Protein: Sulfotransferase domain-containing protein
Amino acid sequence: MDIAFHIGANCTDDDRLLKSVAKNLPLLASQGTRVPNPARYRRLIRETIQHLRGAPPEPGTRDVLIDTILDHGETTERLVMGNPAFICTPARICEAGCFHEMATFKARSLRALFPEDRIEMFLSIRNPASFVPACWEQTRGRGFDAFMAGLDPRSILWSDMVARLRHAAPDAGLTVWCDEDSALLWPDLVRVLAGLGPDAPIEGAHDLVYEIMHPEGAARLRDYLEAHPPASPDQTRRVVSAFLDKYARPDAVESEIDLPGWDAALIADLTAIYEADLERIARMKGVRFLAA
Structure:
């Protein structure tokens, strides 16, 4: 069985992608793909991993999990799941002074729970200049210095985390993309997570772009796409980009960064480091990097 697991990161699409995939349940069911309600597996998988503490699961654990996740008598060829906090909660991204220190343990544990299955992990990443503040905002009043745990923000490299994921589960697929590109990539993301071909008709192809646009712009984009169906994914992205340039809501695409000691120079440094890091990720063996 194929298991596609959207492992985060925190403060990226916040379950929107999984919801867009779920809009295609009838089509996916006809192809043997299931998208269970997250309530059926998130706590179950988290508590199973916590209980094992890195030890090998007992024989039959995988079958018990699958039987619990699926409806009675239900079978599947592809299981689509996701949890934005699978690696860790937002409050723990810098725990022990290491960026996503838990990545190795969580990826290895996921692989161990489903040893007979083909695993693919899906990861959305984000510029640390906005990612760190967004995660800190969700820590409910925790001091910023305690949150950072001594980690120099300039040392934050997503490529390090990606390398640890690959090392922990070398036979698992890994698809990575930038959250900043998600609105343009949304149709592709829905299809790859669902296991559909590049030309498969889908619902929810533009959910995110409609959400971040003024209602007038969203309506105009719908009308335009209906009257002028794009001939290719590249053309779709060009059309969407043009409408976003004109109709995107500033509050949805821009974030004000106000952190102790974070000035314009630091933010510029973090952005430059991030952009260079993306090039490293795109070249990494065993990683499918989706770019707009």
Notes: Strands lie at 2-8, 33-34, 78-82, 118-125, 173-178, 287-290. The domain at 2-207+251-290 is CATH 3.40.50 (Rossmann fold). The chain is about 50% helix and 10% strand.
